[in-house]
Amino acid sequence: MRSLNFSAGPAQLPLPVLEQLRDELLDWRGTGASVAELSHRGKPFMALAEEIEADARRLLAVPDSHAILFLSGGATTQQALIPMNLCAAGETADYLVTGHWSKVAIKQASAVCAVHTVASAEDDGFLRLPEKSQWTHTKGAAYFHVTGNETIHGVELFNLPEATQAPLVVDLSSNIASRPTDFSKIGLAYAGAQKNLGPSGITLTIVSRELLAREGMQRPDIFKFASHAAQGSMLNTPPTLNWYILGLCIRWMLGEGGTAAFEARNLAKSSLLYATIDQSAGFYTNSVAADCRSRMNIPFVLHDAALDAVFLEESERAGMIGLKGHKALGGMRASLYNAIALKDIEALCAFMRDFQMRHG
Ligand SMILES: Cc1ncc(COP(=O)(O)O)c(C=O)c1O
């Protein structure tokens, strides 16, 4: 029996995707081989890569002004590559700090360029977004980086900032495809696939062709977005199996109605869980400000931390895994990515109410 998996990533994959993967594993499209055993330069895989790019463009409504790259190395590698590609020597990049992952992005960038913090919500425990009136931008900044969703702190940026003179760079790792996004307003967006798009090991980078043309700083060719784009993301051997699974997930999302359908589902799922938390009379708490409560990752604490281990043990016995909170915050966290259905959240909420009745 499959568990209900609320992991923050790698996360639950849609069952039809896993079934197709199983069925095609030994003989993919009549080749007599697994997709993992075929050359990325052969016709079957090249055709697949083209299909997946077209599907990704349709799912995410990516305009022709932007290239889509399929890269390895995860989101963290992108956080290092972005300043290398977008900053010329001596330039500064602006960062908004909304939680743990913004800080990681700064850590990566600081090794290669000057970084300016536009504003930080750290003094507020990352429970709300930094007050807009206090944001300070660098004149002539190479770009402005924001984190679309803070996977650990459960803080989501529902309205992307208006572009300043600096192009907007967005980490969409944990909320890509969770709702429609206007990529025409974004210079570069990136997302590790392992949350909302598929398996770990492959990362989507969506970058405007204008930014691809930037000189950037001196770096090896393998670190150049433009070189990856020129070679169809096959500058070197790509993670072919992961790319294929990503493609299956994208197809599945298109078949389910695309990002507008997932927006409605994710709103219903997250509203139900927040209501269960808020109506528990303090047994469960999530302290994030209402206007930025994430629809993807919902951290919550139990009123008595001594119950944490019991909650995890009992939830696992009830068939639910991945609920342990990140070590930085403790408590619990439920991740509600697209592969999680409303009925899964109903089951979680029923378990939480029952647990409260027995232990409250
Ligand atoms: C918002 C966000 N950015 C970046 C990362 C780092 O991703 P990766 O492990 O793919 O490097 C994560 C991982 O959880 C994340 O949630």
Automatic annotation (TrEMBL):
This is Phosphoserine aminotransferase. The modification N6-(pyridoxal phosphate)lysine is found at K195. Its EC number is 2.6.1.52. NCBIfam families: PRK05355.1 (NF003764), serC_1 (TIGR01364). InterPro entries: Aminotrans_V_dom, Pser_aminoTfrase, PyrdxlP-dep_Trfase, PyrdxlP-dep_Trfase_major, PyrdxlP-dep_Trfase_small. It comes from Lysobacter soyae. Pfam families: Aminotran_5 (PF00266). Binds 1 pyridoxal phosphate per subunit.
